[in-house]
Every structure is written in structure tokens, then in C-alpha cells.
Amino acid sequence: MNIQELKTLGALKKAAWKSRSIKEELRENLKANIKSGTNSFTGIHGYENSVIPELERAILSKHNINLLGLRGQAKTRLARLMTGLLDEYIPYITGSEIHDDPYAPLSRTAIDLIVAHGDDTPISWLHRDDRFYEKLATPDVTVADIIGDIDPIKAANLKLSYADDRVIHYGMIPRANRCIFVINELPDLQARIQVALFNILQEGDIQIRGFKLRLNLDMQFVFTANPEDYTNRGSIVTPLKDRIGSQILTHYPETIAIAKTITQQEAKSDTRTTETLYVPELARESEYVDEKSGVSARLSITAYENLLSTAERRALMNGDDTTSLRLSDFSGVIPAITGKIELVYEGEQEGAAFVANELIGEAIKTVFPDYFPEIKKLVKPDEETPYDKLVEWFFNNDGLELLDELNDSDYKALLDQVTPLNDLIEKYQPEYPMEDRYFLKEFILWSLVEYDKLSKRRFNEGYQFNDLYSDFVKGM
User: Fold this and answer.
1) What is the pTM of this model?
2) Which of 204, 224, 234, 267 is the most exposed place for a label (fewest CB within 10 A)?
């Protein structure tokens, strides 16, 4: 018999069920996971040696927690994953607004039910997925929203005075009793509202319009905050910070490999990468981007989704069942970038679309030396470079136009015309997979543009590559 099939207080007592606080639940279940080697925070990458150990120590210490970090650093995701450390089901008095523990009821409703029915008091069961409450801190949040208020209609219907605790309409925090309660963007909460949290965090008292009520709420608080908020909008008042047991600093992925893993995990690509699209294997710093604001991981995720959709749209237009990503498809990621970066003055002057293109160019320039010899800024007049024949090819020809909607066969035929590209790949990347080589060919062209060896011009239907000299002559 499953324990959640028990329906009365008496049956619960006979089953020898033991009550424990939510912090004790989290602690004991985490201890079991650590002993067995079970990962309590699956799907979180890059925090294995930094954030997760600190978060586990805070849980073992039964602390309320503040996750401090820039946007897109999985703060809320970490808080949600904590529900996996709760017991699968807990019992509560049926009809209780605050999930009263059958062994230690807090509300007048639950206490009266037990007095009236004794061991026949009905109980219900709450699943751990339903024990997560979340509130976004905004300036319009009131004490009534999060703590509660006196309900005059209830007082009139029950013919009770305002001094009776039965006339209280509970706010979000009391209703989250025995649950994880998350307040996102804590500094945005007005100081007077933060003050209302003091006693709840420390003593369990709440006051509603001067009416003092002792509710020893059993809760795990998790706050999230962006350090940029401390200067732009508000701050966490010092007495509240003092009542938060652990403050944990989150961070962005420290390596490209980790960032790529996160992006591929989170991008909602459905089955496109296996059925329709082939993805070859192959910026958080910019003079235009406000580094204090940070660049959310959501930028990479939505950009990747747009990248897949750009290639998918081309395949649909050409009637192709399958296609491969191209570097020119990256023009489709610009709408995913422009709304997610905060620009400094110089960036605002240039415009978000210009900055997005600059970020793509800088990323290409950063990755290029991992595959091919570095292109030096200055070379001697008679010094040969590995790219001379490629530049010469463009000097002797009319350039190369890669249209956005080219089908795969025409796209490959155009790149095959640029024979020096084959020589470069055979010499420096001979083991590179054949199915990725056309992406690599276009990658070389884009890279030489970034190093000022070729020119690239965007027109309505695609991109045109030329040598620098011919563009100069045409300009004259």
C-alpha cells in the first residue's frame, strides 16, 4: 500500500509516518544523494566545482539562500531543481489553505478540524512538484500580496471581529507553507516590503494591519538577484541580507565547450538536427556591449534556434528533404541577438544590428586560429603566406556570390570553383570530416574578410566575396 493512499489522521499515525521540516527533508535527501553519487542538479553545466558545491553546503546547513548573478545564469533553474530533493509526497489537513502538517497544525481551520474529528480528520497528499512557489519582485508588490490582509467579507459572513485570525486572507508566503518559495529579482522589491520579511525569516511572526499572528511557517526561501540591480533600481536592505544564510555567486560558462553543451541542451530544436538538418562541429566581450549587464545564455540558445530555422526554411523553399548549416545562415541569428544585449554609448550610436554583425565577425576571428595558420597583421612585401593563392584567385576572377536560398548542389558547386580552398583544407585539416568541408570552406572566406584579406558585401539575396583591390577600384 502506498502511503499516499492513507486518508485519515488515524491511519497516518498507525503507519508511523514521521513529520520533518522542509529544510530537514532537503538536507537528508541531499545527504542520501551525495552518498550514492547521484547528481541532484542534472542539466546544470559548468557549476560542478563552483556553484553546486556551495549550494549543497547551504542546503546541508539549512540556510535560506540568495543566488546572486547576472541574467541567464540558471538561478531560477537551480531553485526549481531543489524540488527533486523533497519527499515525493507529504500529508496535510484536507481543506487547509496553508498545507497544515497533521501533527503540528498552524491555522485555526486545521486545529478546529482536528478537535472536531480527531483521528477521523481527513488528510490529503501534496506532491513535491506542487511545492514550488515563485514570485517576481516588482515595485507594485504589496504586503497584502505576499503576507496577507484582513478580509472584511469573510468577517461579515462569519460574524467575526477583525481581531479573529479566521478573517485573514493569507498571502503567497503563508500559502507556500512547507514549500520552496522563490522571490526573483529581490532588489526590485520595495524596502518596506523587504522589511515585512524580517520576522518570517527569523521568528515566524506576521503582522497584518497591526494584527499580530504567530505562524511558525516551515519554508525554504530562495532569492535571486542581479548585482546590476544594486545600482540601477534598488538594493537588498542590510537586515534582510543578514537573515539570509548563504549568498552564492553564479557565473557564465567558463569555456566554449560548456557554453555549446548548454546551448544544444536548451535549444528547442525538436527532431530537426536528426531528421532535416546537419550541424557541422565547429561573445561575451565587445567594446559595444555593456559587460556589467552581461550576455544571457538565452542569447546563445535563441540564436541557435534561429540558426536551425534559417536552414530549415531554405530546405523547405527548395523542396529539399535534408540540408546542412552554412555560415551564411548566421544572418538569421541577428534578431535573436539585438534584443538581448545592453549597448554602451558607442554601440547605441552604431545600432544593435551592426553590433550583432560585429559579434559574429569577432567570434569567427577568434575561432579561426584553432583550425588554420594565424594571419599576421603585417608581413614583408616578398613574404609568402598560406593564403596568397586564395587571394589571387579572387583577384583574377569576378568574385563569388553565395545566395541565401541556394540549394545544396548549387551551393557546393560554387564553392568547388574556388580551388585554393581545397588545397588549404587538405594541407591543414586533412582529417576533417567530408560532410563538414563545405562549411569549412565558407568559414575560411569569412575569416579572411575579418582579417582584411578579402571583402564581403551583403546584398538583398545573399553575400558577395571579392578581393580588396577590386572593391577599391569599383569604389573609384
Assistant:
1) 0.69
2) 204
- Give 188's DSSP letter: G
Closest CA to 444 of 385, 400, 390: 390
379-392 pLDDT tens trace: 677 778 899 999 99
User: Torsion over CA of 136, 137, 140 and 142, rounded to 10 degrees?
Assistant: 100
pLDDT value at position 431? Answer: 92
What length is written for the chain? 476
Report whether 407 contacts 318 (CB < 8 A): yes
The pLDDT of residue 351 is above 90: no
Cα–Cα distance for residue pair 410/444, rounded to 1 Å: 19
The pLDDT assigned to 298 comes to 67
Question: pLDDT for 129-147, tens place per residue?
Answer: 999 999 998 888 888 888 8
* Residues 59-85: tens digit of each pLDDT: 999 999 999 988 788 899 999 999 999
150 three-class SS: strand
pLDDT, one tens digit per residue, over 195-235 is 888 877 776 666 666 666 677 889 999 999 887 654 445 68
Burial class (CB in 10 A: 0-12, 13-18, 19+), 19: middle
Residue with cell 530546405: 315
Angle at 112 between CA 109 and CA 116, to 5 degrees: 135
Check residue 191 and give its pLDDT: 84
- Residue whose grid cell is 485555526: 108
Which residues contact residue 109 at a Cβ distance below 8 angstroms, ignoring those fewer than 6 apart? 93, 95, 96, 97, 100, 166
72, 297 Cβ separation under 8 angstroms:
yes
Q: Which domains does the chain have, with CATH numbers?
A: 3-249 (3.40.50.300), 253-370 (1.10.8), 373-476 (1.10.10)
CA 70, chain centre distance (Å): 10
- Name residues whose C-beta falls within 8 Å of residue 436's C-beta, 6 or more positions apart in sequence: 280, 281, 282
Provide the 8-state DSSP code for 262: H
What CA–CA distance (Å, rounded) separates 296 from 66? 19
pLDDT of residue 283: 39
> What pLDDT score does 159 carry?
74
d(CA 312, CA 274) in angstroms, rounded, equals 12
β 211-214/205-208 pair status = antiparallel
Cα radius of gyration (the chain): 30
- Cβ atoms within 10 Å, residue 77: 14
CB 194 within 8 A of CB 237: yes
Distance, CA of 19 to CA of 103 (rounded, Å): 7
Cite the beta strand spans of 226-291 per DSSP E: 246-249, 277-278
